Amino acid sequence: MPELPEVETVRRGLTRLVGHAQITSVDVYYEKMVSPEANQFKKMLAGKTIERIDRRGKYLLFRFNDDLTMVSHLRMEGKYDVQPAGNPITKHTHVVFHLADDRDLRYTDTRKFGRMHLLKTGEEAELVAGLKKMGPEPTAETLSVAYMKTIFGKSKKAIKPFLLDQSNIAGLGNIYVDETLWLSRIHPEQPANTIPEFQIRQLRANIIAEIKRAIDGHGTTVHSFSTAYGEAGEFQNHLMVYGRKGEPCFRCGTPIEKTKVAQRGTHFCPDCQALRKNPGETMVLGLTGGIATGKSAVSDLFKAYQIPVIDADKIARKVVAPGTTGLKQIQSTFGWQMIQPDGSLDRHALGTLVFSQPEALAQLNGITGPLIKKAVKRQLQGYRRRKVPLVIYDAPTLFEAHQAAVVNEIMVVTVPEQVQLERLMARDQLPKKEALDRISAQLSLAEKVKRADVVIDNRHSVDKTKAQVVRWLNEAGFGSLMTDKAK
Ligand SMILES: [Zn+2]
Predict the structure, then answer these.
(1) Are residues 118 and 153 in the same domain?
(2) What is the chain's alpha carbon radius of gyration, rounded to the nearest angstrom?
(3) Residues with CB in 5 Å of ion ligand 1
(4) Are 185 and 289 within one domain?
(5) Which residues fall in the annotated binding site for DNA?
(6) Residues that constitute the known binding site for ATP
């Protein structure tokens, strides 16, 4: 079934092709498809000019002169195309609009589910049942946070069928719901009224961006969809979770699962999108970057607003302090050479080893990762209990150490590669070769940026970086945290 972006693509195509065309006569080959009855339908349209084509949800609204509107729904397989008059029609051609310029606007539909209603302009919302109860369009102007908070708060329904219900939000279909729930890290069966405000905001932003991106990419090509120009949609190349059963999650690496929710095939990441009994109101922002990209400067900006920052490096040191199981495991894996005479970890020796050997780094992460995760979880529980609205998890190896699923959103601080190299050489007094080794021991910056929800470009001044952080805080709904707390 065409989804909203596909229908919008059809609308734009038709506007270009028949935007101001005049209809001379109409042939109806399948009478059940039109209303009023076929003869009346033909008579009303003869001589009319298409003035505009609008869309509401998945309905096309052809606006004619004399206050006449034709409401058209493509249902499963409906298609419009424009051909020179006289071309033979097919057995699936059900309605032909003959145009004054020797062209035909033809409607074909292999399943005959599509419908066309002619009515007085302005009465469509009253007379067409699907339009009557339709929720707002998923755009920044029409879909507000306040509206979403209200409708979410009233429903215990699982979020997936809740979003598919066109009376809540117009035009969301199966693919876009799976995609936006993955982007927002919400389990498809999470009850709507348990979703905290920060996630409603994320979901809203993701829905709006995703639909816009899909429209810009001419919609998906799933099923039999093609645009009024016969172009294939490009959007399916960008799908993050839909149709990726068994493949690793782009964010955390866990295999994507496919299940059924409300009878619909549903894709999700069991790690990023855990079903939560009590999600709590605390949003956790993961903050990461590459070496010397300036992540700590961004971390300091949050601290200046007295937003709590969990420092993964500090925790990483704690879990390998003398006497811990972490340190014992390091000793048994990498040898006594990693332990100093006073019983503490020889960081320099371990650092040299793991920066030159990716397998060693993976082994080290395998030891410290679960310990860090546990310690972070404990700290987060404390913040959630105290209903702290926003906590930053500052973690240089958020992705490498498989911690991406711990957070609600990921911010990556980046600079161009050349700037990164220069800053690292200057900061740590390293020769070029060694600096490059350190950079390549981590996941590439480009890859981190690809997995980010928000990217902070830190190549310019501190002020420019700060402006980006402030913008994010405002957009994510944390603007009030900055009042009177700036240094
Ligand atoms: Zn995941």
Answers:
(1) no
(2) 28
(3) 249, 251-252, 254, 269, 271-272
(4) no
(5) 92, 111
(6) 292-297
Q: Which of 55, 56, 58, 448 is catalytic?
A: 58
Do residues 289 and 438 share a domain? yes
Alpha-carbon distance of 39 to 30, in angstroms, equals: 12
Q: How far is the CA of 183 from the centre of ligand 1 (A)?
A: 10
User: How many separate domains does the chain show?
Assistant: 3
Report yes or no on 413 lying in a domain. yes
pLDDT, residue 373, reads 86
Residue 75 belongs to a domain: yes
Whether residue 44 sits in one domain with residue 188: no
**Do 401 and 361 contact (CB within 8 A), yes or no?**
no
Q: How far is the CA of 264 from the centre of ligand 1 (A)?
A: 21
Going by the annotation, the residues of the binding site are 92, 111, 292-297
How far, in Å, CA of 485 to CA of 304, rounded? 7
The one-letter amino acid at 34: V
pLDDT in tens, the chain (487 residues): 678 888 999 999 999 999 999 999 999 999 999 999 999 999 999 999 999 999 999 999 999 999 999 999 998 889 999 999 999 999 999 999 999 999 999 999 999 999 999 999 999 988 888 899 999 999 999 999 999 999 999 999 999 999 999 999 998 989 899 999 999 999 999 999 999 999 999 999 999 998 988 888 765 433 333 334 444 444 455 788 999 999 999 988 999 999 999 999 999 999 999 999 888 899 999 999 999 999 999 999 999 999 999 999 899 899 999 999 999 999 999 999 999 999 999 999 998 898 888 899 889 988 988 898 899 999 999 999 999 999 999 999 898 878 888 899 999 999 999 999 999 999 999 999 999 988 988 889 999 998 999 999 999 999 999 999 999 999 999 999 987 555 4
Q: Respond yes or no on whether the N-terminal peptide bond of residue 5 is cis (omega within 30° of 0).
A: no
Instruction: Find the 287 Cα to ligand 1 centroid distance in Å.
Output: 17
CATH number at residue 25: 3.20.190.10
- Dig out the tokens for 111 from the structure: 């399943």
At residue 10's C-alpha, the angle toward residues 7 and 11, to 5°, is 90
Distance 187 CA to ligand 1 centre (A): 11
For 249, the domain range is 145-268
Q: State whether 17 and 49 are in the same domain.
A: yes
Q: How many other CB atoms are found less than 10 A from the CB of residue 426? A: 11
Tell me, yes or no, whether 233 and 256 share the same domain: yes
Is the domain of 233 the same as that of 321?
no
* Same domain for 159 and 127: no
Domain-located, residue 487: no
Catalytic, 3? Answer: yes
CATH number of the domain bearing residue 183:
1.10.8.50
Q: Select from 102, 132, 162 the last residue of a domain.
A: 132
User: ipTM strictly over 0.85?
Assistant: yes
- What is the sign of the dihedral through the CA atoms of 442, 447, 451 and 454? positive
Alpha-carbon distance of 320 to 228, in angstroms, equals: 62
Q: How many residues does the chain have?
A: 487
